[in-house]
Design brief:
Elements (H helix, E strand, L loop, with lengths): L22 E3 L10 H11 L12 E10 L2 E2 L2 E2 L7 H4 L5 E9 L14 E9 L2 E8 L12 H8 L10 H8 L6 H7 L14 E2 L4 E4 L5 E10 L8 H8 L5 H11 L5 E10 L25 E10 L4 H6 L12 E3 L3 H17 L69 E3 L7 H12 L2 H16 L3 H14 L1 H11 L3 H5 L36
Antiparallel strand pairs: 1-14, 2-5, 2-12, 3-4, 5-6, 6-7, 8-10, 9-10, 9-13, 10-11, 11-12
Helix pairs in contact: 3-4, 5-10, 10-12, 11-13, 12-13
Length: about 525
């Protein structure tokens, strides 16, 4: 039967034949600037709410410093990067960190099951560096064009204003890449006990560039010296009954009493190529780099030692962007990172104003003060110019004074890019199920039990076709995973396993020894083990 639904179009009325992929040079990118469909979609999405953030609205923050070790693991940091913030020992770089939840509004409870934002602004001697990440080291999607749809599905229903499980899983069931993040966020890791007791991660892949113009791929992580602590649903409910802002209170009180939270900043490093030996693309932010192959290498420590003087002026008006990098740190072709780089700063210009970077919380430190030829706009309160610059020269180059270009780096980094321009989805999908299954098996029993209980409750609130497809997905991650969700929610496992693979995707191979499932055939699943019980 022909599909009778209306056709999706842009706001100009152009039919959209691919709503899943940015235009990019080849499968791995980079993305191109003429992505009109994406730009229209994401810039409209960035302006959907005022004045609070569309996402990460509920948050708190604190001031502190970063102190580099001068090494990356056992090697001098300068081997990998020329970024002074990572190489100059004895220099404490001022930082401001904003912690947040994602989906809820400004006054939502901090016990919500949700990823937590971990956004850090380094005010370096070479200007600001923003690292905008989460506590969990993966994300739901790997292409930025899907972001508005994902958030719409996770936000409250536009009619009932209720968050509905079916909306969440209706989106997830079409995106097996989300299974890894779902497995994390529906476990106790989805509710950190406090901001002080959670990890931070860049999630996206960047590059480090050294003095020779050589690049390596890098992911950044922050490991709490206080240890990692998470909550079960029952523990979170008990806290929420008494305090909807417990994490803000905990961070503020700890700093006030001098119990300064500390994280060790680490990196994972990989050579800058596509790594065909891996069954996932290292630029895919829905995947973790295995730490046994790419170990966490310490690079420095972050300490928070001062609370804001004014919540609105500092925490609420703080603005971060993934495009805010310093020399020695660069972009990779990660499609989520490239999409975020447009979206984040665009959001701040809309939310805070065209001159949000003039606010003290966002401005670079004095020794790296901004000096530009940019002028005017809403809420301008000073002119960016050097003290000895002619007031009449707001352009470059000029024979009458004004600003000049900075000296070029000794050896510039150049990336060779070629490929056919088009819309691509990754062909390396094996780990859409494999890493989620590995995560399920490595959870402790209590974490696995909490995960199953949360998913069972959600499946009971979903229409049958969504619940069946989700069980199909979970079973392909791990047989015990799918079986326990099906049994707990009263779902027919055999009916779920009879579903065909998703249209446009290859049938997933079961990622666990001893699998009995062959796509398209109904076979008896292997018996449940005593360990699974």
């Amino acid at each position: 039967m022909a599909d009778q639904r209306p056709t999706l179009t842009t706001r100009q009325g152009h039919p959209v034949s691919d709503n899943q992929s940015l235009r990019s040079v080849g499968e791995r990118g980079p993305a191109t600037l003429e992505n009109y469909q994406f730009i229209e979609k994401i810039t409209h999405f960035d302006r959907e709410r005022i004045p609070e953030r569309v996402v990460h609205a509920r948050g708190t923050g604190a001031h502190g410093y970063f102190e580099p070790y001068g090494k990356i693991g056992e090697e001098p940091a300068s081997r990998y990067t020329r970024a002074k913030v990572l190489t100059q020992t004895g220099v404490r770089t001022p930082v401001f960190i904003r912690f947040s939840s994602v989906i809820g509004s400004k006054d939502s409870p901090e016990t919500a099951r949700d990823p937590r934002g971990f956004a850090i602004k380094f005010k370096t001697v070479d200007g600001n560096w923003d690292l905008v990440g989460n506590n969990l080291k993966v994300f739901f999607i790997r292409d930025a064009i899907k972001f508005p749809d994902m958030i719409h599905a996770f936000k409250p229903d536009p009619v009932s204003n209720r968050q509905e499980a079916w909306r969440f899983y209706d989106f997830v069931m079409h995106h097996p890449e989300s299974l890894h993040m779902v497995t994390w966020v529906k476990s106790p890791w989805g509710i950190p006990a406090s901001y002080r007791n959670m990890q931070g991660s860049s999630v996206n892949t960047y590059k480090l560039i050294n003095d020779q113009g050589e690049a390596v791929l890098v992911k950044f992580s922050f490991e709490p010296k206080q240890g990692v602590t998470n909550l079960t649903s029952e523990q979170a409910a008990e806290i929420q009954a008494k305090d909807v802002g417990h994490a803000t209170r905990d961070l503020y009180d700890a700093i006030e009493r001098g119990d300064f939270p500390e994280w060790e900043m680490c990196v994972q490093i990989m050579s800058d190529d596509d790594h065909p030996e891996l069954d996932f693309d290292p630029l895919d932010d829905t995947k973790r780099w295995p730490e046994d192959q790419f170990p966490l290498l310490p690079v420095g420590r972050v300490v928070l030692d001062r609370n804001p003087d004014n919540f609105f002026a500092e925490t609420e008006q703080s603005a971060f962007g993934t495009g805010v990098l310093v020399d020695g740190i660069d972009f990779s072709d990660d499609k989520m990172l490239q999409g975020r780089t447009l979206s984040y700063s665009d959001t701040q210009r809309y939310r805070v104003g065209a001159n949000y970077l003039q606010l003290p919380i966002n401005a670079p430190q004095e020794q790296a003060r901004a000096q530009t030829n940019q002028r005017d706009g809403q809420m301008t309160y000073h002119v960016d110019r050097a003290k000895d610059q002619s007031k009449h020269v707001n352009y470059e180059p000029s024979s009458m004074g004004g600003l000049r270009e900075a000296p070029k780096a000794a050896k510039e980094y150049h990336q060779w890019v070629e490929g056919h321009l088009g819309r691509y989805q990754t062909t390396r999908m094996a780990d859409d199920y494999k890493q989620a299954g590995n995560r399920y098996r490595t959870f402790e029993d209590w974490e696995r039990n909490d995960l199953i209980n949360n998913l069972v409750a959600d499946m009971k609130d979903c229409p049958e076709h969504i619940a069946l497809r989700m069980v199909w997905h979970f079973w392909h991650c791990d047989e015990d995973y799918g079986r326990r969700v099906a049994e707990g929610a009263g779902i027919d496992l055999y009916k779920a396993l009879e579903l065909p693979p998703l249209e446009g995707r290859p049938a997933p191979g079961q990622n666990r020894p001893g699998s009995t499932y062959t796509s398209g055939k109904r076979e008896e699943p292997s018996p449940r083990s005593e360990a699974a019980e």
